[in-house]
Write a sequence for this structure.
């Protein structure tokens, strides 16, 4: 599951949306649905948030790959990704703060 905060061009909150994807969902589905909603809302930026049921808040390789794909797709459409925050039992991690995006 992924929560997405959609922001306008002044980084003012527009909408918070919850996407539920089953385990067989591919990165392309995540990217397409998240970016499609951004376009529908006229969002200029997004913040991604999801939890790790394992409790470890460290980004996985799949998290990093998915985030980079969303960033690249968004760039072409004028949509930026401010951060991807991962929540675990041990707290949270910010991919922006970790230098991963």
């Amino acid at each position: 599951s992924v929560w997405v905060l959609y922001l306008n061009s002044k980084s003012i909150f527009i909408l918070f949306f919850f996407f539920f994807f089953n385990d067989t969902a591919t990165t392309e589905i995540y990217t397409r649905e998240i970016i499609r909603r951004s376009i529908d809302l006229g969002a200029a930026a997004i913040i991604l948030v999801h939890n790790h049921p394992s409790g470890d808040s460290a980004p996985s390789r799949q998290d990093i790959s998915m985030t980079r794909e969303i960033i690249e797709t968004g760039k072409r459409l004028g949509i930026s990704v401010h951060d991807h925050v991962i929540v675990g039992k041990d707290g949270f991690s910010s991919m922006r703060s970790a230098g991963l995006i």
The beta strands are 2-7, 13-19, 45-51, 80-88, 91-94. The longest helix spans residues 61-76.
